[in-house]
Amino acid sequence: MNPNGQNAVVSVSRDDRHRFSKPAVESIRLVAGFGVEGDAHAGATVQHRYRVARDPTAANLTQVHLIPAELFAELTTLGHRVAPGELGENVTTLGIDLIHLPLGARLHLGTDAVVQITGLRSPCSEINGYQKGLMKKLSGTDSAGQVVRRAGVMGIVVHGGTVTPGDEIRVELPAGDQLPLGVV
């Protein structure tokens, strides 16, 4: 939870081309079953180039990428300056521990949009091309030897709507067993 008690959207980003970073914009429009309107990663089937090469007919479980702003603050203390959109995310959040949400959690963004969390983003090697040594800060192992990925989460749009910075975010946990997130 952030200090004022409200989970919120800090920034929104999109890019119509496959580039590492996405420019921040005033708002994004989420389209159910498709993703962020005008973003290169939007579509009912996979759009990430490496996934298309493996199976272009696979369902797109990575329509929306979300990262917590708290990660950027932590990276700054470790010598890496990262601003919203620079790691390729569509939505930068505040107040939500995204990587510890269970599979299927739903984020209600603003008044209409709903994104269902499908898994963790696996940091790609392009991160070190962006800033040398950053990959190591976003992926590592914990004391039990388990891989920890900190580059945000991915989701699908289950209800469309417009999302703008300052919008409140409400978390809806799935019914039943709370399953941990895997990599998508």
From TrEMBL:
Source superkingdom: Bacteria
Pfam families from the UniProt entry: MOSC
GO molecular function, one term: catalytic activity
Domain MOSC: 23-172
InterPro entries with a match to the protein in the record: MoCF_Sase_C, MOSC_domain, Pyrv_Knase-like_insert_dom_sf
Protein name: MOSC domain-containing protein
